[in-house]
Specification:
7-stranded mixed sheet; 2-enoyl-CoA Hydratase, Chain A, domain 1; 4-stranded mixed sheet; alpha/beta; 35% helix
Length: 259
């Protein structure tokens, strides 16, 4: 099943939605059209129970995404208090998507690309990936992306990434060392590996998977005791739904792999 968009390719096969940023001539920089299309995509993913997992990737060889397309700009309200962070349209968690997102990134991963990276559940990258934030080099405050990043990596790494600007890029290996990505693969294997991870998840009980994603993300900013109480509440909701989704007659433990 496919859907037609101007800036993105979208396809669903066997419960996996593959979303491909498709502006390689603009290094997959996002414009207003892409933001509007992602709102529609996340609504579709959230409400379509045939979709269990999302793979997010990008076309072209040079970049996953280099942030906002400064040549086009974005639609802004004339009222400063009504203006909206573009991440509200791009990020899956800000759109209440609790189906796992596997991000497969390559090449340049810059600035606003982290609206997706920061809200993905599993991030893998190719060995040619480099991560950087150009904001301060152009005199702009880097706030939204590093705030999200600081919830995934050590604070000092988020600050260094934001403050050094264009003078330094984080390598794929360094990104793995600090936990920004969980795996580095050769460029030619990136899409295949992301799809394989998604399909491992897609066959698991959907209630258990979505409950797990939601429980973890919604308790990130809570104190430990409150988070544990909320998490226990989610198990009382999800387990009675998820456990019957496992067929005891056909269940076979998989051959595990060591990472």
């Amino acid at each position: 099943m496919t859907a037609e968009f101007e800036t993105v390719l979208f396809e669903v096969t066997e419960h996996v939605a593959t979303v491909t940023l498709n502006r390689p001539e603009r290094l997959n920089a996002f414009n207003q059209v892409m933001i509007d299309e992602f709102r529609l995509i996340w609504e579709r993913v959230r409400t379509d129970d045939d979709i269990h997992v999302v793979v997010l990737r990008a076309a072209g060889d040079r970049a996953f995404c280099t942030g906002v397309d400064v040549g086009e700009g974005l639609r802004k309200s004339p009222n400063a208090w009504s203006q909206e962070d573009p991440g509200r349209g791009l990020g899956p968690k800000q759109n209440k998507v609790w189906k796992p997102v596997v991000a497969a990134v390559h090449g340049m991963v810059a600035g606003g690309a982290f609206y997706w990276i920061n809200e993905s559940d599993i991030v893998i990258c190719s060995d040619d990936a480099t991560f950087f934030d150009p904001h301060v080099s152009y005199g702009m405050t880097s706030a939204l992306e590093p705030i999200g990043l600081a919830r995934r990596v050590p604070l000092g790494e988020a600050l260094r990434w934001a403050l050094i600007g264009l003078d330094e890029r984080m390598s794929a290996e360094r990104a793995r060392e600090i936990g920004l990505v969980s795996e580095v693969v050769e460029a030619g294997d990136l899409w295949v590996r992301a799809d394989a991870l998604a399909r491992i998840i897609a066959v698991k009980p959907t209630a258990a998977i979505q409950g797990t994603v939601r429980a973890i993300w919604e308790t990130l900013d809570l104190d430990r005791e409150t988070a544990q109480a909320v998490g226990f509440h989610y198990t009382t909701i999800g387990n009675p739904i998820g456990m019957p989704q496992v067929s005891r007659a056909t269940f076979v433990k998989p051959r595990w792999t060591l990472r």
